[in-house]
Amino acid sequence: MIQIAIIEDNRLVREGLTLKLNEQAGFQVTYSAASGSIDALREAAPRVLLLDAGLEGVDSLELAERVRDGLPETQVIVMDLLPVHEELVEFVTAGVAGFVLKDATLEDLLATIRSVAGGRTILPPEMASTLFSQIVQEAVLRGADEVGEATDLTPRERKVVGLIGEGMSNKAIAKSLEISPNTVKSHVRNVMDKLALHSRLQIAAYLHKGAEEETE
Fold first, then answer.
1. 75 and which of 18, 97, 99, 126 could share a cystine (Cβ 3.0–4.6 Å)?
2. H or E stretch including 60?
3. Per-residue pLDDT, 165
4. CB 27 within 8 A of CB 110
5. What is the pTM of this model?
6. How far is CA 161 from the centre of its chain?
7. At what angle do helices 170-177 and 155-165 cross, to 10 degrees?
8. Given 1.20.1250.20, 3.40.50.1980, 1.10.1740.10, 1.10.10.10, which CATH number is that of 143-215?
9. For residue 122, what is the DSSP state?
10. Domain range list for the chain
11. How many CB atoms sit inside 10 A of residue 177's CB?
């Protein structure tokens, strides 16, 4: 039996999902709410959490990070209409194990839940067909190593890239370096321009490739 928690602030969507999942053999919704605390989720003990990416009044990314740190046995699947690439990266680095589009079929949703509950990381076909998503898949599976020398970058930009490679979010980087999130975003844009890269995960892949070349 796969126990599931649902955090979705649209009541019709939440109640519809709860009803449909409870009708399926091998699935049981143990928690369903518009928001949630770690204590409430811990009591419900879900194997999988279905998390709306755009909760009102709650930072979905921050909640995903709290689940990763406080409930390591719970795998998170983010639900969205069409995730922005940068947001997708943030959720990946927050430890999210799966993504499902809100217009997905019930069969696709059930397959994603089963796969994530079994320890796999899943992207929907709409994302997996893009080059960006291939980079996401690789970064999830292989991670990113510490930054190597990049002569075109300033010391602060290299520091920011190194923290991105460690999987830190903009907010975490800003706190670590004692600068504003907007300053972090500015550094990231500069780095992407200088290295001709187009996403945070491409930066991480660049770092990983550089580290491999140094060891050869």
1. 97
2. helix 60-70
3. 64
4. yes
5. 0.61
6. 18
7. 130
8. 1.10.10.10
9. B
10. 2-124, 143-215
11. 15
Greater pLDDT, 130 or 8: 8
Q: What are phi and psi of 29, to 5 degrees?
A: -85, 115
Which CATH architecture describes the domain 2-124?
A: 3-Layer(aba) Sandwich (3.40)
Chain centroid to CA 83: how far? 10
Token look-up 């997708």 returns 88
- Reading the block at residue 140, the tokens are 């999830």
Distances in Å between the Cα of 169 and the Cα atoms of 19, 24, 55, 154, 155 are: 35, 36, 19, 20, 19
48-52 vs 75-80, strand pairing mode? parallel
Q: Which residues pair with 49 in a beta bridge?
A: 5, 76
- Over residues 150-165, the pLDDT tens digits come to 346 788 887 887 777 6
